[in-house]
Every structure is written in C-alpha cells, then in structure tokens.
C-alpha cells in the first residue's frame, strides 16, 4: 500500500467527521441558548467531566456490563442457532416462538427485568443487554448453518470426519460470515441497551450520568456524555472490525478468488 493510498483512505474516513464538526462549531458559535451551548464550551468541559474519576466510576462499569452481556448473547446465540439450524424438527418446533420473542422490542423488557432483578446493580443490566443482543446472532447463525453447502457436508462425511470436526471446521466455519453479520448488529443494539438499562434508577454508569447532568441542568456536561457515548461506539466498532478482518481472512480470500474466476 503506497503512502498516497493511505492518505486517500484517511481523507475518505476523516473527511465527513471533520466537516460535521466544523459545521457544528461555527453554527453554535455565539449561541446564548442554554440547551444549545457552543461546541467550544462543550470541548472545554470534556476533560474535567470525564477525566476526573468518571472514567473508572461510570464509563468502565458500563463497558464491562456491555461486554459481559454481549459475550453471553454471542455464546448463547451461536449455540442455539447451530442446534436450530442443523435440525429441521427443532427448527419447525422453535421457529414460531423465536419469531414471537424476536418481535418484542428489547427496551420494553427493561422495566420488567428491573422489577425482578432490581434497578441497581449490574445483573439486570447484563441480562437486558444479553436478551437484546441474542436475537441477531441467533437468527443469523440459523441462516448461516442452513446455507452451508451440502456438498461440503457430504464430502466431510465421506472422509469420515468426526461429528465435532464437521461442526467446527465445516458448519461453524461456513456459517461464520453470517454469524459475524449478526454479531455486528448485536453490538449496536448492545450499546443502545447499555444506555437504556441505566436510565431506570441506576446511580452509576454512562447513561445514568447523562440523565443526572440533564436533571441538574448541566447541559454542556450532558453534551459531553453524548459525545463520549459516540466515541465509545466508534472504538467498539473499530475493534470489532479488526477482529472480524482477521477471523474472516479466509472468506475474503475465497470471495476474491471466486470473483476473479
């Protein structure tokens, strides 16, 4: 990759964010509205708001709850999705029920889960995130498993591969692009549910901090919380893309080879 190519890609990646920040900066400059403070004021408030203890007391616990709930959803979604995708009988038996629960918006479950598990503490928030994230992973796993080439499965049987080897090296690997697509959707849902679950009675966390700033009429600080949330989502998305890029290198090579054929 040449330096010119790197600069061009950086330009494409940073161009729109820089334009949006510039528009926001000049559009809000000189604003006297208490709800629409100048961006310069928000930027000035950012370090004092988040780097004086709130990173460890609010942001870090939120991220840990998100990662734990997300990991539970991925493990459960892949395991159940494999079971449903591999068996027609199990699929026929569970599909109506799965479609019903998938249609229930996860934020609706937040007050119900909080009633049973409590508004404070991490358990109810982790369960909320896991229940919301599991559906895209599960449904994409089912579709991915169903789409595995039958010829590959027959070939694996002809070579007397064990059931575990067929599941890991043929079924799971063949379904992994679809599983990654579901995991990517689930990550966005997890960030949303992380915030929503902290709006109901929580006293610590990123979402709870934003609400406390709003109720305390600390509007610039509230805006810094929204920006922090966007930055967190961006970093998580970047990390996911790096992991996905490495894990699905074989798939990109296969796709490129097919396109070149």
Structural account:
The chain is flat. It has a single domain, classed as MetI-like fold (Orthogonal Bundle), CATH 1.10.3720.10. It has 261 residues and is mainly α. It contains 11 helices and no strands. The chain has helices at 3-28, 39-50, 54-86, 88-103, 106-117, 123-146, 150-158, 163-197, 206-215, 219-247, 249-260. The chain starts with a helix and ends with a helix. It is 84% helix and 0% strand. The mean pLDDT is 88. One of its GO terms (cellular component) is plasma membrane. It is a multi-pass membrane protein. InterPro entries: MetI-like, MetI-like_sf. It is found in: Cell membrane. The chain crosses the membrane at residues 12-30, 63-86, 186-202, 222-243.
What's this, in brief?
Its main location: membrane. Belongs to the binding-protein-dependent transport system permease family. The protein has 261 residues and is mostly helical.
List the SSEs and their pairings.
Blueprint: H1 3-28, H2 39-50, H3 54-86, H4 88-103, H5 106-117, H6 123-146, H7 150-158, H8 163-197, H9 206-215, H10 219-247, H11 249-260
């Amino acid at each position: 990759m040449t330096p010119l190519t790197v600069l061009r890609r950086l330009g494409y990646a940073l161009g729109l964010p820089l334009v949006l920040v510039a528009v926001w900066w000049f559009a809000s400059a000189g604003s006297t509205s208490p709800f629409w403070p100048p961006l310069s004021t928000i930027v000035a408030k950012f370090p004092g708001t988040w780097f004086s203890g709130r990173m460890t007391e609010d942001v870090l616990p939120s991220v840990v709850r998100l990662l734990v709930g997300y990991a539970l959803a991925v493990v459960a979604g892949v395991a159940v999705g494999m079971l449903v995708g591999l068996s027609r009988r199990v699929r026929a038996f569970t599909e109506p029920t799965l479609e019903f629960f998938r249609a229930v918006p996860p934020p609706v479950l937040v007050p119900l889960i909080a009633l049973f598990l409590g508004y404070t503490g991490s358990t109810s928030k982790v369960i909320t995130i896991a229940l919301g994230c599991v559906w895209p992973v599960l449904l994409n796993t089912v579709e991915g498993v169903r789409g595995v080439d039958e010829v590959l499965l027959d070939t694996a049987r002809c070579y007397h591969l064990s059931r575990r080897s067929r599941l890991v090296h043929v079924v799971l690997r063949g379904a992994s692009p679809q599983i990654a697509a579901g995991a990517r959707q689930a990550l966005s849902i997890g960030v949303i549910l992380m915030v929503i679950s902290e709006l109901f009675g929580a006293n610590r966390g990123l979402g709870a901090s934003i609400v406390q700033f709003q109720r305390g009429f600390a509007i610039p600080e509230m805006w810094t919380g929204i920006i922090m949330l966007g930055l967190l989502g961006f970093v998580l998305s970047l990390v996911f893309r790096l992991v996905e890029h490495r894990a699905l290198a074989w798939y990109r090579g296969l796709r490129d080879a097919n396109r070149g054929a």
